[in-house]
Design brief:
Elements lengths: L3 H16 L4 H23 L1 E15 L3 E4 L4 E6 L6 E2 L4 E5 L5 H19 L5 H4 L12 H19 L2 H49 L5 H71 E3 L4 E5 L8 E2 L4 E6 L4 E8 L12 E6 L4 H4 L2 E8 L9 E6 L18 E13 H14 L1
Antiparallel strand pairs: 1-10, 1-14, 2-9, 3-5, 3-8, 4-7, 5-6, 7-9, 10-13, 11-12, 11-14, 12-13
């Protein structure tokens, strides 16, 4: 049996154990663990974990920014704009080197714009009120200008300097005189017809008298001769009337020929005018950079006057005031059954890292029913925020921007996904 001292020592150890108060973790550990487990289960129930379907995508636009390039190689003779300027449709942006003097070509173009509506309406009088400017520094356009000038001078001489009008007035006067002559001939024919009727009555009376032997046959023959003479006069008058009609018909034909000649000359003038206009338009496309629409102008590189540019070199971009952007996406058949209209799409541009610039967001608006030749489906994605990213940065649009995309399909709860995987493991 233990001694009293041993009992005292043992009692102190037991007392220490009995009186020891464990830490709160030990005392409440199970409760805390249960709370953490319940919290994790709640979060797994609340948090939704969407399935993502990857796809390749290309950014496109309606009324996209327009790229303007140099159509010929040479010096940049004149630069009319600055980077960031607001420009209007048809505004001159730059002149490229040419053998023609740009100011003279523009002057000729303005003259054509003023003259063309009158020429289309057949009004050649504009040649007199708005004469062709004298230009001798048109370079490659000089030959076309000279051909048109010769035609215009010919048209002016024939149609505007009195020849055509005088000729027409003379023919119209001849027709008027022939109408008066016809009226006179008709009047004479009417009188001769009346005289013939009277002579016929006299002849019929003498014929009865000669049958009754009241007058001699010789006297009857004289009256019959008079009747035949009257009839001959009527025939001659009829011939004169026919000749008058023929002459009047010839004059009308001559008038038609003259009108056709005038119309042909006007048509030739219009054709030469349009030919010159076409030559100027072709020249302008090569040597003048013109804004195709209203918008904000951006330089594609540093530009200054007298700088050498190459054929096809990018010069400017015109950003329209309003543009609608969309994405053309191609998705493979893997998980394609999950893709539906209205689903959200996250787009990361290849040239703009999403970690630095953010991502574009869109919604699916169209899904093709038939796969393409590469066994992928075409999907159209609208971009409601345009080219503004999740980092509130505006991306400058360029044609055929390539990107990668992820389609957010079923947004299942995280707990459903965990239990789904757990079931998969049990089945295995």
């Amino acid at each position: 049996m233990p001694t009293a001292i041993q009992q005292q020592i043992l009692s102190d150890d037991v007392q220490d154990i009995v009186t020891y108060k464990p830490a709160w973790v030990i005392r409440k550990g199970n409760f805390v663990f249960l709370l953490i487990l319940l919290l994790l289960l709640s979060l797994a129930f609340i948090i939704r974990y969407p399935d993502m379907v990857p796809a390749s995508v290309r950014i496109a636009a309606l009324n996209a920014p327009k790229m303007l390039t140099a159509k010929t190689e040479g010096r940049l003779e004149k630069l009319f704009v600055k980077n960031g300027d607001q420009v209007k449709k048809g505004q001159f942006l730059a002149f490229l080197q040419s053998t023609a003097k740009h100011e003279q070509v523009i002057k000729l173009q303005q003259w054509i714009a003023k003259t063309e509506p009158f020429a289309e309406a057949g009004d050649i009088g504009i040649i007199l009120s708005n004469p062709l400017p004298v230009l001798n520094e048109l370079g490659e356009l000089q030959a076309a200008y000279q051909d048109f000038q010769n035609n215009m001078l010919e048209t002016k001489a024939l149609l505007c300097n009195g020849y055509y009008q005088k000729k027409k007035q003379a023919i119209v006067a001849d027709i008027r005189f022939q109408n008066l002559l016809k009226q006179n001939l008709d009047s004479q024919a009417n009188l001769q017809q009346q005289d013939f009727v009277l002579q016929k009555i006299q002849h019929d009376a003498n014929e009865k008298l000669v049958k009754d032997k009241v007058i001699a046959p010789l006297e009857y023959n004289r009256e019959k001769s008079k009747l035949l003479a009257k009839k001959e006069s009527l025939e001659q008058m009829s011939t004169q009337l026919i000749n008058n009609d023929v002459a009047q018909h010839d004059k009308n034909k001559e008038l038609l020929d003259l009108q056709k000649f005038a119309d042909d000359q006007k048509q030739k003038y219009r054709s030469e005018l349009l030919k010159l206009k076409s030559s100027i338009t072709e020249w302008e496309q090569n040597y003048i950079v013109v804004s195709p629409e209203d918008g904000k102008l951006e330089f594609s590189s540093f530009l200054q006057e007298n700088q050498l540019v190459s054929n096809g070199q990018e010069l400017f971009f015109i950003q329209p005031a309003v543009s609608r952007y969309y994405a053309e996406m191609k998705a493979g058949q893997r998980n394609f059954g999950k893709v539906q209209n209205g689903q959200k799409v996250i787009i990361s541009l290849d040239g703009y890292p999403s970690a630095e610039f953010g991502s574009l967001y869109g919604r699916i608006t169209y899904i093709a029913n038939i796969p393409s030749a590469r066994d992928s489906f075409l999907i159209k994605v609208e971009l409601p925020d345009g080219m503004r990213t999740s980092y509130d940065r505006e991306i400058f649009f360029r044609n055929n921007l390539s990107a990668s995309a992820e389609i957010m399909t079923d947004e299942k709860r995280l707990i459903s996904k965990l239990f789904g995987q757990f079931k998969e493991m049990i089945k295995r």
